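#lab-general

N.A. 3:47 PM
ok so I finally got the sequence cleaned up, no stray characters, all 351 residues accounted for. can someone with queue access submit it? mine expired

B.Y. 3:52 PM
send it over

N.A. 3:53 PM
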Amino acid sequence: MGVKSAALRAMSVFTTPIPPEEYLRLVNPLASSRQLRGVVTSVTPETPTSATITFRPGSRWQPHQAGQWARVGVEIDGVRQWRSYSLSAPAGADPAVTVTAIGRVSTYLVRNTKVGDIVFLAPPQGDFVLPAGPRPLLMLTAGSGITPVMSMIRTLVPRRKDADVVLVHSSRDRTASLFTDELQELAAEHPGLHLVHRYTTDEGRISFADSGDLDRLCPDWRSRKAYVCGPTEMLDAAHALWERTGLPDTLTVERFNTALAPEVPGGGGQITFEKSDKQVEVDGSTPLLLAGEEAGVIMPSGCRMGICRTCLTPLLSGRIRDLRTGETHDDEGELIQTCISAAAGPVHLDC
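B.Y. 4:20 PM
back already:
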């Protein structure tokens, strides 16, 4: 038993029936033996609908690498909700997330978060990180896809004189573009960063049907390690171009959404959440996780893309459909990923 555990056990003699951790949190709100927490230290508006939220994490936080993401939890109407966000702060700094008010949790964070608020955290994850050694880089981003790349640029460009980064960022217009002023300042101060802003309202989207747009924007793109982050259609098109040019190993893609199989007509059904004693009727395209959250059921979740497996929940009975592959499963007791599974008839879940 560790020294801290022994001390808490000794303190419990005097604090029973209240755990000593509850008294510690009165002094230090980040103190928790079970759940990693962070205290909000700043909220910085970025656009009319987005903000950067910086927090000081508890001692068990693992420092993130530039480009990684982490789960952030908040309590809304008494229910703890989790979402995954790319970390926009440079490696070695206190973590920060840049959030756009789309969806219930993101909107809550942008509109309601204040300095001093406590958020719940999970350790940073992800392989969308800088290469091990120095090499020329091409960053292609659109919309909020700039967020993990901003962490990379803030980490690399001010610290490495040999940095050679071309960033091509697309946004609807200047008012919707994240980090515009900071990026312009970094490009002016550091010759290793070449910045191209593309406003799609005036210039249209970058075409990946052939290499023409890239040849004009970054003539030596074939010799660079490329990172792409943005809408699904952009990622798919970029991946296809790199495949056609025989350079798939030089491309790293960060996806926010999961590619889904076509919806099957007649899917859906009634979901019964046994422990919560709730039922809800859904269609065949609604993830079980989303259906449960909208019904007020507390369910585990993480990346919400079928990657981290945090949402695994026992299937007590019924048939579910994998939204990525279209395959169905009906093995009782099987652990299913509720974020990428939908009802294919009546379903009973152990939550």
